[in-house]
Amino acid sequence: MMLKIIKYSGPILLMVLFFGLLAGTSFALNSGTPLTFEDTVYPTNPLIWTHILENTDFTPNLDATDKFKVTDAKLDIQMDFELGTFIIPGITVGFIDVIASGDSIYLGSLDIFDLVPNASYNDYFWSIPLGGNISALDAMRDKTFVVSLLINPYFGGSISHVDYSTLSGTAVVTPEPGTLVLLGAGLAGLGLYGRKRMRKN
């Protein structure tokens, strides 16, 4: 009797394994599909603000359960500031540090050699590439990215206004561990079933 049950359930088992494998394969293909994301903030505080990546900030949109890994990113800021002065034999140097809080990740500095010291600058555009900063890319996984602008007090100056801040980049969906286990089990099951069929024939 048991042999008959196994015999007649074979096609059903094969069908279940096939559709399970198909679903897992579909997810695996989706997980390799590149995403782009972009979030723009108009800060009310010129020194600190937060980028919150919503599912709709991604193209294509993320599902509520999707996990992702950022592969490249940049931070674009347009701001008004006043520059202090420090002289090193004919070179005027002032810079602004950017820190992503949480873990206080250093993002970069703006070394200013081409601007006039003690002058005010409006709508100054600054693009900060983050692709080489693994800590910064990992920090975006929780979808909250806090930026703090600091002018080194040694050089003086101040930031009066930030017009906008745009965080953008590319990412990929990463599969859940359970999905990988299910996909592996489906492959193993199909392989085992295929071997049994070959031996029977």
Describe the structure.
The protein is α+β, with helices and mostly antiparallel strands and about 200 residues long. The protein has one domain: Jelly Rolls, CATH 2.60.120. It has three helices and eleven strands; from the N terminus they run H-E-E-E-E-E-E-E-E-E-H-E-E-H. The strands form three sheets. A five-stranded antiparallel sheet has the order 3-1-11-4-9, with no helix packed on it. The chain has a four-stranded antiparallel sheet with strand order 2-10-7-8. The chain has a two-stranded antiparallel ribbon with strand order 5-6. Strand 5 and strand 6 form a beta hairpin. Helix 1 (about 1-30) packs across helix 3 (about 175-200). It is elongated. It starts with a helix and ends with a helix. The model is unreliable at about 1-10, about 15-30 and about 180-190 (pLDDT under 50).
Give the topology:
Blueprint: H1 2-31, E1 34-41, E2 48-52, E3 58-59, E4 67-83, E5 87-88, E6 91-92, E7 96-100, E8 105-109, E9 120-129, H2 134-139, E10 144-151, E11 157-174, H3 177-200
Antiparallel strand pairs: 1-3, 1-11, 2-10, 4-9, 4-11, 5-6, 7-8, 7-10
Core attributes:
201 residues, alpha+beta, Jelly Rolls, five-stranded antiparallel β-sheet, four-stranded antiparallel β-sheet, disordered N terminus
Question: What's the short version?
Answer:
30% of the residues lie in helices and 41% in strands. The chain has 201 residues and is α+β, with helices and mostly antiparallel strands.
